[in-house]
Design goal:
The complex is a heterodimer of chains A (about 150) and B (about 280). Chain A has about 150 residues and is of the alpha+beta class. Chain A has one domain (about 1-140): Nonspecific Lipid-transfer Protein, Chain A (2-Layer Sandwich). Chain A is built from nine helices and five strands, in the order H-H-H-H-E-E-E-E-H-H-E-H-H-H. A five-stranded mixed β-sheet of chain A has the order 3-2-1-4-5. Chain B has one domain: Rossmann fold (3-Layer(aba) Sandwich), CATH 3.40.50.1820. The termini of chain B are far apart. The longest helix of chain B has 20 residues, at about 265-285. The relative contact order of chain B is 0.16. Chain B is globular, with a radius of gyration of 17 Å. Chain B is about 35% helix and about 20% strand. Chain B has helices at about 50, 55-60, 90-100, 115-125, 160-170, 175-190, 195-205, 235-245, 260-265, 265-285, and strands at about 10-15, 20-30, 35-40, 60-65, 110-115, 135, 220-225, 250-255. Classes of the chains: A alpha+beta (about 150), B alpha/beta (about 280). At the A-B interface, helix 6, helix 7 and helix 8 of A face helix 5 of B.
């Protein structure tokens, strides 16, 4: 049933430019640095993970809730504990001020086949709201008309 | 206004379920047709507080919202501490009917959300004549799982935080912030393993596919309403279920998700008011 629904909705729900999605993702460390509450919520989190658009993911090093390094993948023999990758169309929709239904949550995106979640999920699940809010930061920064 | 006291009254009623007295907490307000409200998995009856104080509805309905055993202010049964909680189709159905009997409710309306929306389908299948009408919010005969429920109860993940974070995505994005926070607060306060135990019914035991075709809405009118932002019980799930039940009324609610009554009470009111009016008119005709 679900896979049938995914096949029916292959068109991007909002128009987007691939480069704009990559640029918005690259802005996340700076946005997090200015968000003291979100950083504080991640204060127990230390992890190396792979996040971002499926066409250009990034190795992200998080220490005490702060992103201390973000490098475009691939990096030779760099390991990661978990990966969350979504299509550029999915991130563009997720970052809308009013995201379309079914494109408004990280796990809605995995359910509809627009994102993948792989690896050791413990750090992701133990800090789930942190990662949802972290990856939503471009929405607050004005991507898709939000303010 | 400081000092304002809401008209909701809270009581405990002793209800015998499977041979054991359960001390069940419920809140009520209003007079008229009994309207019993069922909360979602892992939360409690506080989700209904806005409906409970709606002056238009409580003129004609005695609105009753109760905490299921193990939830909110209804403790586990004395004999069950230390055992793994698992809600089943049979135990959920028994609990609702026992509560209605204990309160001596005459053919109540039952409105349930999520697991409550699922169980009203079973009430329609097995006990339709006991009820005046049934309302399923975020209701379907089955929906596709989207996460592994073992994450909900393990010692190395904070249960309240992960439960709330999981369901946070089921709330529509533009609802009132305070209502969103309050809805999630209920999940942060659930007992260990209770959300997971409720989902045993939802995921494993309560698959009603192939059974809802026997529902006859002439015995008891059935209304299904689902929020467009609910990606757990999707509008497609509800409409697919409704397509197999002749005469059912199905509605997709805009700008609402999985918790319509608590995440955006004003928006929900636009959709539930005509349903309650329809029930009232059927009553008087």
């Amino acid at each position: 049933m679900e896979s049938e629904r995914v096949r029916q909705t292959t068109d991007p729900p909002v128009p987007f430019a691939h480069d704009a999605v990559i640029a918005a993702f690259k802005a996340i460390p700076g946005l997090l640095a200015r968000d003291a509450a979100l950083t504080a919520r991640g204060r127990w989190l230390d992890v190396d993970c792979l996040l971002g658009p499926s066409t250009q993911p990034f190795h992200v090093a998080i220490r005490a809730g702060q992103i201390v390094d973000m490098t475009p993948a691939p990096v030779l023999m760099r390991s990661w504990r978990f990966a969350y990758r979504a299509t550029p169309a999915a991130f563009a929709a997720y970052w809308q001020a009013m995201p379309p239904a079914g494109w408004h949550d990280l796990l809605a995106l995995t359910k509809r086949g627009q994102a993948t979640l792989e690896g050791d999920l413990h750090p992701f699940m133990a800090h789930l709201q942190y990662f949802k809010d972290l990856l939503a930061l471009p929405r607050q920064n004005g991507f898709g008309g939000a303010s | 206004m400081s000092g304002f006291i809401e008209p909701i009254v809270g009581c405990y009623v002793h209800v015998e379920i499977d041979g054991e007295i359960n001390r069940i907490y419920f809140e009520e307000n209003g007079t008229g047709i009994p309207l019993v409200c069922l909360h979602t998995a892992g939360s409690d009856a506080r989700q209904w507080r806005h409906l409970l104080v709606d002056e238009e509805f409580t003129k004609n309905f005695r609105v009753i919202a109760f905490d299921m055993p193990w939830h909110g202010k209804s403790n586990p049964p004395d004999s069950q501490y230390g055992s793994e909680y698992r809600l089943t189709t049979a135990s959920y159905t028994t609990t609702i009917r026992a509560l209605c009997n204990a309160l001596k409710l005459e053919r109540p309306v039952v409105m349930g959300c999520s697991i409550g929306g699922r169980i009203v389908l079973n009430l329609a299948i097995e006990h339709a004549r006991e009820f005046r009408a049934l309302i399923g919010l975020e209701s379907a005969d089955f929906q596709q799982p989207w996460y592994d429920t073992t994450w909900l109860n393990r010692s190395d993940v904070h249960g309240g935080e992960v439960c709330a974070a999981l369901v946070s995505g089921l709330i529509a994005p533009d609802g009132p912030e305070a209502a969103r926070n309050e809805t999630l607060w209920g999940y942060k306060q659930g007992g260990p393993g209770i959300f997971k135990g409720d989902l045993y019914f939802y995921r494993v035991d309560g698959d009603l596919r192939g059974r809802t075709g026997s529902i006859d809405v002439r015995d008891c009118p059935l209304y299904l309403l689902t929020g467009e932002y609910d990606f757990s019980c999707t509008p497609e799930d509800t409409l697919r279920t409704a397509a197999g039940i002749p005469g059912v009324k199905a509605t997709v609610m805009e700008r609402l998700g999985h918790f319509p009554m608590s995440e955006n009470p004003e928006q929900f009111r636009r959709y539930i008011a005509p349903v309650l009016q329809d029930i009232l008119e059927k009553q008087s005709s």
